Every structure is written in structure tokens, then in C-alpha cells.
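input
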Amino acid sequence: MIFILPLVQLCQWEIYAPFTFPVGDTVDSFPEMDDGSIILSYKEVVYQAYERKGVIRLECDKNMYPGKPSNFSEQVFADDSSQYSATFIPKCVCKGGFPDAPGGKSDPEEAEDSIQAVN
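output
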């Protein structure tokens, strides 16, 4: 039996079997926290009667380029669902941290203005 997966941005891959399962196909929210980190949350995806959700925490480290991802952890819930979480620490999350990118700003105040314009 062959399953066709929808386009996804994040998926679970079974290491002992050649299967992948969608975890996130649409971003649900990306609020900035009080500590300056950003929480990238994906809407829940139901596939084969199991609900999965992805959450990635983006943290600033001005010395980290291109970035350092942590391993994903899985939290399994009793209601046939899982949440997959990881942290990604790049300098581009920092205000003014990636001025060479298209549209990037080297001045932190200009970067803040750009962030506000997007929201």
C-alpha cells in the first residue's frame, strides 16, 4: 500500500522503517516571548487517525551562524496525539543578526521596524 503525503514543512521519520508522517504543514502562530525567543507553532495534522503537532523555539545567539538545532523530542499524549519540539539557535533570530539577507537590516532599530511592518 502506498500513501501519498500532503506537502509538509515538518515531518516525523521512522528510523527503523521507511515511513514519514506529517507533523506540520501550516504555521499556527509565531509569538515573540518576553526573553526575545520566538515560538514557531504548527497547526495540528491528523494522518492515519493520529494527531501530530510541531513546535520550534528560535533563540538568539549572536555568535551562532548558520545555527544549531537541537534534536526533536516527542511528547506522547493519551488521546492519540504527539507533540514534537526542538530548539534552533541561529544569530539571524537576534535583532539585526542577519543584515546580509535580502531585506536584512544592520541597525537593530531598523530591524525592529521591519518586524513590526510584517506583523
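quick obs: The chain has one helix and nine strands.
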